[in-house]
Design brief:
The protein has nine helices and no strands.
Amino acid sequence: MILTSVQNFGYYGLMIWLPTFMAKQLGFSLGKSSLWTAVTILGMGVGIWVFGKLSDYFGRKPTFIFYQVGALAIILIYAQLDDPMTLLFAGAIMGMFVNGMYAGYGVLISESYPTEIRATAQNILFNVGRGIGATGPLVVGVLASTYSFAYAIALLASIYVLDVIATVFLIKESKGVSLK
């Protein structure tokens, strides 16, 4: 539940406010910020595909940790950037790490729960995470109005520390585990 909450919180917190961040902090027009947001979404698609490949090869747990640390790092870096081309490139990388781990939840949960409760576990864990994650835009908005967008987005990166800790201590590697 922690993993799905963090991923959804990070995704919604970033994607809802990204166009406003670019317009207010960087002076981007709506059209320009839409293009940069679209590139971030394309990065998400690539990240989901790459996550699946890495997860099959290296295992679930190491791939989750790689993506979580990547999300933490790229969000901190992204919040400091102001060059449009660097933002474009970094946005694709940010999309890859922030949303790419979405590909792993179904398999991780399926391999962690027996058949009798698998569908219920997936629905509860992912949707409670999505409900908690839905507060991301509110939290980012409050922080942005109190401090700045750059501060709010950088602070958003800190939630991935919780994600790494939960993965290290609570998640068992499930690669190659037979489904029950």
